[in-house]
Amino acid sequence: MNPITALTDLLGKLVIEHGSAVITEKNLAYLRDQLVAAEKEINRLTSDNENLKIKVANLADENEQLKKKINDFHKTPPKKEYVCPRCHEPAFKLIKQLPHPNKFFANSGSTVRLYRCEKCNYEETI
Ligand SMILES: [Zn+2]
Fold first, then answer.
1. Range of the domain at 112
2. How far is the CA of 6 from the centre of ligand 1 (A)?
3. CA 19, 23, 26, 28 torsion: positive or negative?
4. Quick one: 7 and 58 in the same domain?
5. Closest of 100, 99, 95, 101 to residue 114, by C-alpha
6. From the CA of 85, how far away is ligand 1's center (Å)?
7. Which residue has the higher pLDDT, 18 or 9?
8. pLDDT tens digit sequence for 22-33
9. How many angstroms is it from 82 CA to the middle of ligand 1?
């Protein structure tokens, strides 16, 4: 082979190899950046998930406490007479007890109570 042709071929190979090395390095740098960004995102999402788990646990506890309060309230025997919210006479009496209009509460045995004032006839369902 002609030495000049051989040298030209060698230089050509060098340029190609050097070029691909530069491209590979750029790809690696890009991938490294992507990895760092993905790791940050994973850390952020992990932290968010932990916070949400705590919130869900707190809300589940609060929900249980509220359900218990509602059940306790509806299981407490009603008073027979109250002060009327309209005329303020102690004549606000329990007329009847009905199943709760909300099926969820009705199915758990909850009821609503109809009160009527014997003085002014004001009625209220509690
Ligand atoms: Zn009244």
1. 77-126
2. 114
3. negative
4. yes
5. 95
6. 7
7. 9
8. 778 888 889 899
9. 10
